[in-house]
Structure formats: structure tokens, C-alpha cells
Amino acid sequence: MAVHPDAALGLALAVVASSTAPMVLLDGDFTVIGASASFFRTFRIEPSTAPGLKLFALGSGEWDMRQLRSLLSATVSGDAEIDAYEIDLKSSLGAPRRLVLNARKLDYGDAAHQWVLLSIADVTDARLAEKLKDDLLREKAILLQEVQHRVANSLQIIASVILQSARKVSSDETRLHLTDAHNRVMSVAAMQQQLAASRLGEVELRSYFTKLCDSIGASMIRDHDQLVLEVKADDSTSTAEISVSLGLILTELVINCLKHAFPGGRLGRIEVGYHSRGPNWTLSVEDDGVGLPKDRESATPGLGTSIVEALAKQLSAHVQIEDAHPGTLVSVIHNQIAAVGEEDESGDLLPQAAV
Hints:
By secondary structure, the protein is of the alpha+beta class. The strands form three sheets. It has a five-stranded antiparallel beta sheet with strand order 2-1-5-4-3, with helices on both faces. Strands 7-9-10-12-11 form a five-stranded mixed beta sheet, with helices on one face. The chain has a two-stranded antiparallel sheet with strand order 6-8. It folds into two domains: about 5-120, PAS domain (Beta-Lactamase, 2-Layer Sandwich); about 220-355, Histidine kinase-like ATPase, C-terminal domain (Heat Shock Protein 90), CATH 3.30.565. It has helices at about 5-20, 35-40, 65-75, 125-170, 170-195, 205-220, 240-260, 305-315; strands at about 25, 30-35, 80-90, 95-105, 115-120, 205, 225-235, 235-240, 270-275, 280-285, 320-325, 330-335.
């Protein structure tokens, strides 16, 4: 059904007048027919001066932009529409404003009566807020990385002081305790360096564990032809928080192997493994050393064992120790209930695992 031009114009003007957002109704020559009160208020234009003027003559001439002329001309000709187009409006009254423009041609089948409805959103403040937020986040990330580097450097200094003290004491027992403290501090320092390098995002565990083991080996293995420390892990990633706990567990288990699995200078190998499937994962440390002591059931757990068990509990995991024939295998296992119908790698249905 055809719409009379006068009725169409009245409807368009009613829409513009009722709009709470800046909106302008233009004819085919871009003359202002009407505009919303918010348009005049936002852009400081006297309402009585606008009707009959071309859009490009409003204000102090800030609307006279070649880019805007081209876009509106394409809209009137039907070749294109302005859809969420961002443009900067310069003004002598202040800083440039960032605008988002939308324009639609109102064509009622009468070539002599064509109009363009132009709506304008001023997103200057929103863009400034986004930039401020991004700048603050970037600054926070830089400061946090700097703190992590400083913490790692401080830990290395503390470890150096502890090692110097260990060399000076005459008591073998005291020297042993100080050496253990040195190794633990060095391992934590290595973790801090790795987490700083991760840029606070997801930590790639294979690289993380490898560099951590390199640090432990550098401080505790005198002859790398005698003892081999190797990492075999999949491509899993984890958050920085969980990675810290996994790194501490790994450190304690590897240090325990180096202290107890290879007495008398015997040759050996330690393998660190990490594999995950969905939410389920296993961190393991296996050696081919002397194996478990026969009286381990009656032995009092050491500090390292207590640390591992406490960290595993925090991760909702459990510790499993078994004889590796030869050597010992310690696994920290995190299992969630398997989804019904989930299959393992062989294609068999998985049973429901205990949490």
C-alpha cells in the first residue's frame, strides 16, 4: 500500500522528535528537515537555526567532512548504507568527539520525496573508559611481572646466602639442613621466573617443568652423566595458581629422589611425567633407584612428604606411591567422575571414577 509523502514525512518527524538519542532527518539534498532535542543539546546547536540548512553547514562547519558527504551520497543513491560507521567530529568547542553513525534511506516510491534518517551515538566517553581500562590492565601486568622478577632475584640472593652459610658451618647435620633449604629456595625462584615469562596467562606445563628440572639439576646434580633428569609431558596448560602448586610438588618429589634413590654414587634416571585428559590429570615422578624402604610403613613422614600431601589436598588430588621394579613411582592423581558414555583411548567405555 502506497504511503502519501506528507504522511510519511509526518511519521518520520514524529520518530525523530520522540528519540532520546541524537537523530536528524535530511532530505535528498541533505537539508535538515528535523532533529531530536538530544541532537541539538549534544552538539550545542541552536534548534531554531537548523531547519533549512544543509547538515554540512551546521555549527561552525565541523559537519562538513568529505568522508561524511561520500557516505550520505552513497546512501541516497542506494549504493550503500551507513551501518555503525565510526568517525571523529572536530570542533572548536573542545576535543574531537568519536561518533558512531547509522543512516537509512526512507524511500516511498516517489523519487521527488526521499529522506535520510541519520542516527548518531557519541561514544567518546566509552572509548576513553575502554582505553583507560586497557592501560590500567597493561600497567598492572607490567608491575606484576616486575614484582615476580624482583621476587625471583631476591630468592636467588637468599639462596646464595644460605649456601655460603652451609659451607662455613662445621656440623654435617646443619650443613645438610641448610643445603636442603638452599635447594628449595632455588626451585621456588625458578618457578617465579617461569611464571613471569608466562605473561600471567596459561602456563605451558611441559616447558615449565623442563626449565624447573633444569634448575634443580643445575644445583643438585654434580655429574649429569651419572644422573639423568628428564621430563615427558603432553601439551597441557594450566593457570598460574595451579602451576605453582604443581611446581612445588614436582620440586619436592625430585629433591627426594636425588637425596634418597641413588646412594653411594650409583647411576640412575629420574623421569617426570604429566598427562591430562579433560579435567583429569596425573603428575608423576619415577626413578630407577634403590626403591622403597622395607620399613616405610613405620617411618615418620618427612617435611617433603608433608608438603606434597598438603599441596595435593589443595588440588583435590591424591598421592599414590608404588614400587617401580626397580625404583619408586610417585603419582599425584586428580580424577573427576567420568561422563556417562565417555570412551578411553582403546574405545572402551570408561567406568565412573571416584573423585
